[in-house]
């Protein structure tokens, strides 16, 4: 090789060394940073642990507060509904004697057909339908049915000669009523003895 070629060859080797050198230095720089990041993720600091613990406590408090609010909302809506129903109950209880009067008057009129009686019967039916819309139901109790203390009140006992009527309803003195399947007036009955 001549000296010109030798110089070129040496320059190539030197340039290759210079190019490789920065690559090695960069690799060495990256590796310590990666190692530091790995160590940081593997071992959480006390601040991170405290922050995580505080976050969990806050989440727990939030869930408890949210549940408490939902329970409060349900309870107040239920109480409001019960208050409305009890107000309706009081009004309907006070209207029951008027309904009894209508029924007695319809029985007294009987089969008499006049314009006045027809109008009276229409008003009685309309009044009954309005009360039915609010959930009022009359108890269907007839003579000969079993006595049930949950729905009936025995106002007297009469001796009966028929064995089938002992412990059974002989007569209904006053009708009983249910409001939304709750007894608001017990039926007053006479029981056979």
Word description of this protein:
With 193 residues, the protein is α+β, with helices and mostly antiparallel strands. 64% of the residues lie in helices and 15% in strands. The chain has 3 helices and 6 strands. A 3-stranded antiparallel β-sheet has the order 1-4-5. Strands 2-6-3 form a 3-stranded mixed β-sheet, with no helix packed on it. The longest helix is centred in the middle third of the chain and has 64 residues, at 46-109. The radius of gyration is 47 Å and the shape is elongated.
What's a concise summary of this model?
This protein is of the alpha+beta class and 193 residues long.
Major beta sheet, strand line-up: 1-4-5
Estimated helix fraction: 55-70%
Overall mean confidence score, pLDDT: 81
Largest beta-sheet characterization: 3 strands, antiparallel
**N- to C-terminal separation?**
143 Å
Q: Tell me what portion of residues adopts beta-strand conformation.
A: 15-25%
Shape call = elongated
Radius of gyration over alpha carbons? 47 Å
Structural class: alpha+beta
What letter string, H or E per element, gives the SSE order?
Answer: HHHEEEEEE
The count of helical stretches stands at 3
Count of individual beta strands? 6
Question: Uncertain runs with pLDDT below 50, 5 residues or more?
Answer: 17-30
